[in-house]
TrEMBL record:
<feature type="domain" description="DUF3427">
    <location>
        <begin position="137"/>
        <end position="282"/>
    </location>
</feature>
<dbReference type="Pfam" id="PF11907">
    <property type="entry name" value="DUF3427"/>
</dbReference>
<protein>
    <submittedName>
        <fullName>DUF3427 domain-containing protein</fullName>
    </submittedName>
</protein>
<dbReference type="InterPro" id="IPR021835">
    <property type="entry name" value="DUF3427"/>
</dbReference>
<dbReference type="Pfam" id="PF26350">
    <property type="entry name" value="DUF8090"/>
</dbReference>
<dbReference type="InterPro" id="IPR058403">
    <property type="entry name" value="DUF8090"/>
</dbReference>
<feature type="domain" description="DUF8090">
    <location>
        <begin position="11"/>
        <end position="123"/>
    </location>
</feature>
Length: 286
């Protein structure tokens, strides 16, 4: 019976680690790889391990990574599905009894190491030592909504980051746009969002956002108010049924002009020109 329980924990752990591939930030896998060989890791050791792979990391992201591995931002469903591999106490992140048990089996240890090292080396090959700041987005890479919670050091349940086309964490606003709406979409959700050209984008707010609301003013006066607007787009929500497409990060945008009320129609300037090939892929109808 114990053997079956250990195998179930291994299967769930491997599934969770594999679900993070390709990894969106390197910090979590750096810390986990260290804990394969050592019983615990301090903040200073965690930062040192991360700095072996990248040329900079902010302290808050190191702390957030340790908190994330402690399952601080998991909802109850995630906690029931994902074994706790780490436990934070007395200023250090420790291996749990679950992880200790898994590492006693040479085959389990080898397979966990393989996933971690694959994630680390693939990240290194694609992004090198570059520091991407906070939020930790890379231009033209693919993301799901919930990734923006992890990559902006959101300190509430990450599963809450979904459903709405506009999410926020402090002064960072994340705009998620489906460029081609489904034929049967509810009219109140059928926003007139579109790429105008390689440097401009049109976006419509939700109907409950007015020019005089705090959220409305933060969007239309984003630069004056110190609000960072991050734009994510995808051509279609899904290509095949039940196969949800990821979004592509087009970088930060700034409001050039606006009009209307409920919804507000906003014209954005992109800080980065969309590459020609990506622009064609996103705008050409198939």
């Amino acid at each position: 019976m114990k053997g079956l329980l250990v195998y179930e924990q291994f299967e769930k752990s491997l599934k969770w680690l594999s679900s993070m591939l390709p990894i969106k930030r390197i910090y979590d896998f750096c810390i986990l790889r260290y804990l394969i060989d050592y019983e615990n890791i301090s903040f200073e050791q965690a930062k040192d391990e991360i700095m072996k792979w990248v040329n900079d990391v902010d302290d808050d992201s190191v702390y957030h990574s340790m908190e994330f591995l402690n399952q601080d931002y998991f909802d109850s469903g995630q906690k029931s599905r994902i074994p706790a591999l780490c436990e934070y106490r007395r200023g250090k992140l420790y291996r749990t009894s679950v992880l200790n048990e898994l590492l006693r089996n040479p085959r389990h240890k080898e397979m966990i190491e393989d996933v971690l090292e694959y994630g680390l080396f693939r990240y290194d090959r694609e992004f090198g030592e570059s520091y991407f700041g906070l939020p930790h987005f890379k231009l033209y890479e693919q993301y799901q909504m919930m990734d923006s919670a992890l990559l902006s050091n959101y300190r509430k349940s990450h599963s809450a980051f979904r459903g709405s086309g506009l999410l926020a964490n402090g002064n960072d606003y994340f705009l998620f746009v489906d460029l081609h709406k489904e034929a049967d979409i509810d009219e109140r959700l059928n926003y007139n969002d579109k790429i105008i050209d390689r440097n401009s984008f049109q976006w419509e707010s939700q109907n409950n956002t007015t020019q005089h609301s705090e959220r409305g003013k933060n969007i239309i006066f984003n630069q004056e108010r110190g609000i960072n607007l991050h734009l994510f787009v995808r051509k279609y929500r899904e290509i095949e049924k039940s196969n949800i497409e990821p979004f592509i990060y087009l970088g930060k945008v700034n409001t050039r002009s606006f009009k209307g009320e409920r919804p507000i129609e906003v014209q954005f300037d992109l800080e980065h020109t969309i590459p020609q090939q990506l622009y064609i892929e996103l705008t050409e109808k198939v």
